Amino acid sequence: MLIKLPRSKPLKSLSSKSTTMKQINTKRSPNCSSSSSVQSTPEIEKKYVHRVYDAIAPHFSSTRFAKWPKVSTFLHNLPSGSVVLDAGCGNGKYLGLNDECFFIGCDISAPLVQICKDKGHEVLVADAVNLPYRSGYGDAAISIAVLHHLSTEGRRRKAVEELVRVVKVGGHVLITVWAVEQEDGSLVDKWRPLSRKYLDEWIGPGSPRVRSVGSVSLESIPETEVSVGNEEVSGDEKDKQQEYFVPWHLPYHRAEVSGASVGAVENGLARKDDVKGAIVYDRYYHVFGEGELERLVSGMKNAVIVDQFYDKSNWCVILEKTS
After folding, report:
1. Closest C-alpha among 73, 46, 269, 314 to residue 155
2. pLDDT cut 90: percent of the chain above it
3. How do beta strands 102-107 and 83-87 pair?
4. How many alpha carbons lie under 13 Å from residue 148 in its C-beta half-sphere?
5. Strands 227-228 and 243-251: what pairing?
6. 123: which strand partners?
7. 40, 82, 97, 157 — which has fewest CB within 10 A?
8. What interhelical angle do 110-118 and 51-63 show, nearest 10?
C-alpha cells in the first residue's frame, strides 16, 4: 500500500515571472460536447494519431530521451512519496525521473506502452479522455505534448477534466501543448495545413462542426500548394491556421518498414519519399494560440491556475485542485 508522506515543500513557480493564483472562470461554452460524444474517438485521431504512433513507436522512442527542464523541475519539486500519473507517457522518459516518487503511466499506443513495460515501468493502455484511475488517486499528474493530438475542443477540455479528477485536493497538474507561435518559424513551413474538406467540418478554433452528409476522404494538401480548394489562402488565414499534419519520416532502414509501414503505404496511411529515403506518416496536430490553453480550462470549478508560461515553443499551465 502506498502511503503519502506529508508535503515537505511547496511547489515552486516554473516561469521566470510568477503569476498570481487566480480562480478559473466557471462559465462553460454552450458548444461543449456531451460526455459520450467527446469519449468517442474521431476517425482523424484513429488514423493520424493512434495508427501512426503504433507504426512509428520504436523509431519515435529512439528520438525521445531529452527531458524538458521545466518538466523535470516540476517533478523534482514534488514531495517524497507522491504518486505521479503521466497521461500520454509515450516511451516513458519522465517515468521514474524523481526516484522519491511513485510513477504510473498510460498511453493510447500499445507499442509505446510495451516499450515502457520493457523498461520496468508501471504502465497501461488508456485514453486521455477516460483515465482508468479512481478520483483523487494521485498527488500530481502530467500531460506532456498530448492535448494537441485531440481534434475537438470538447475532447481537449474533457482530457483536462480527467487530469484534475484523478489527483487529490491540493494536487498539481502540469499540461504542455505545442504552440502555433513556434520559435523556429521555418518548422511551420514543413507542416501540411488541413485542406478545406477538413476545415469545413470545424467551427471556431478547433471545434468540430456536425459532419456533413456523405463521407469525406481524409487527405492533406501537397506541401507545394498555396491554395485550399479553389480559394487562395490569404496571409490572415495562414496566421489563423491551427490544424496541421506534421510529418514523421521513418527511414527505410528501420526494421518496421518491412512490416507495418509497407501495409500503411498500400492502404494510403503513409507515403514513400525516395529523396529522403523514408516512409512519411502524417500526425494530426491542433497547435495552440496564446491564451488558448488558459481558456480551455475555463469551466473547471475545482481548479486554479498557479503558473502559466511559454517554454521551447510550448504553452504550459500548472493547475491546483481545490475541491
Report:
1. 46
2. 61
3. parallel
4. 26
5. unpaired
6. 105
7. 40
8. 30
Q: What is the pLDDT of residues 141-179, one digit of tens each?
A: 999 999 999 999 999 999 999 999 999 999 999 999 999
Tens digits of residue pLDDT in 236-293: 555 578 999 999 999 888 745 546 777 888 888 899 999 999 999 999 999 999 999 9
Cell of 269: 496511411
The CA distances from residue 185 to 3, 53, 179, 181, in Å, are: 47, 25, 11, 8
Report d(CA 208, CA 256) in Å as an integer: 34
Q: How many whole angstroms separate alpha carbon 267 and alpha carbon 261?
A: 10
Each residue's pLDDT tens digit, 175-201: 999 999 999 988 899 999 987 655 555
| Single-letter residue type at 248 | W
Q: Which three cell numbers stand for residue 174?
A: 502540469
For 58, phi then psi, to 5°, come to -60, -45
Cell triple for 185: 518559424
Report how far residue 195's alpha carbon sits from residue 32's, in angstroms, rounded to the nearest whole number: 25
Grid coordinates belonging to 233: 489562402
SS3 198: helix
CB 196 within 8 A of CB 162: no
For residue 37, the SS3 value is helix
Pairing relationship of beta strands 207-208 and 278-286 according to DSSP bridges: unpaired
Which residues does residue 175 pair with via DSSP β-bridges, in sequence order? 143, 317
Identify the CA nearest to 247 among candidates 15, 56, 42.
56
172 alpha-carbon distance from chain centroid: 18
Residue 230: its pLDDT value, please? 32
The 3-state DSSP class for residue 72 equals: helix
**Which among 280, 273, 201 has a CA at the least distance from the CA of 245?**
280
Pairing of strands 303-311, 22-23: antiparallel
Q: Decide: 186 and 192 in contact? Cβ < 8 Å.
A: no
Cβ neighbours of 266 (radius 10 Å): 9
